[in-house]
Amino acid sequence: MELAVISDMDGVIYRGGRLIEGASDFVSRMKERNIPFLFLTNNSEQTQLDLLRKLKNLGIEGLQENNFITSAMATATFLKTQKPNGTAYTIGGAALSNELYKAGFSLTETDPDYVVVGKTKGLNFDMLKRAINLINRGAKFIATNPDMVDPVENGLEPACGTIIAAIEAATGKQPYVVGKPNALMMMIAKQMLGVHSAQTVMVGDRMDTDIVSGLEAGMRTCLVLSGVSDMNTLSAFPYRPTYIHQNVGEIDFDLLLKETEAL
User: Fold this and answer.
1) Which terminus of the chain, N or C, has less C-beta within 10 A?
2) 29-45 pLDDT, tens per residue?
């Protein structure tokens, strides 16, 4: 049985516009060993091409668009199975709208089937007002991910979860969240790679999304301390990762391959 890797990006490969120590070596070693891998991100603002170009600009080359999956892609895939050719009102970036269009959805502000919320720096009062009223009139509430903050160079910035919280407070309704920690996104990622949980390791920087989603999907998990979670917050959770490293450069592929072959 061969090893496969699913890795988060924010806080694992880069932090804002800065490459994290060991990230380039991590990718090079996976490619050298022909390890199937997929970069998975809860960030719904960027397309596969955006992510490919971002990593190239940071010095990581030789990747392809199919090396990436975003929560926007997972959300569109999920909604297509629920209501083909449905309609949606979105709070989010162009990448989220693009994935919904590709899935056959129409975007509208008039009686949509769904209100779909992702991260956006362009949030304004009118967007919140419209989303609240549409949900109160019966639109189903969907979110790409629950992350409250994202790591950036100088600290943290508000993420999708902060927008969700405002809408929840106003409507009293909670969204169905497609991205991590929902194991659904892990299932979609495994299907893209064509692998099983037992051979897959989930690498991430957040106990509350990356690690728990990998755990619930039956994968081994690796927490890196280069993003949100640290050793102090680790004790607050009733579960633990299989491995803990300072950054992805410390991951021992010889050990992972040996353990996978033994399964």
Assistant:
1) C
2) 999 999 999 999 988 99
Domain that holds residue 137: 77-177
- Preceding omega of 181 cis (within 30 degrees of 0): yes
In terms of domains, do 145 and 195 share one?
no
- Spot the catalytic one: 10, 113, 205, 208: 10
Q: Is residue 54 in a domain?
A: no
The pLDDT-based confidence of 116 (bands split at 50, 70, 90) is: very high
Do 172 and 184 fall within a single domain?
no
pLDDT of 24 reads: 97
Residue 165 lies in a domain: yes
Burial 107-133 (b: 16+ CB within 10 A, else e): eeeeebbbbbbbbbeebeeebbeebbe
Let me know whether 93 and 152 are in one domain.
Answer: yes
Verify whether residue 25 is a known catalytic residue. no
Asked about 230 being catalytic, the answer comes back as no
pLDDT score of 164? 97
Say if 138 falls within a structural domain.
yes
* 173 and 201 both lie in a single domain: no
| Residue 243 and residue 188 share a domain | yes
pLDDT > 80? residue 151: no
Which residue among the candidates 8, 147, 205, 210 is catalytic per the annotation?
8
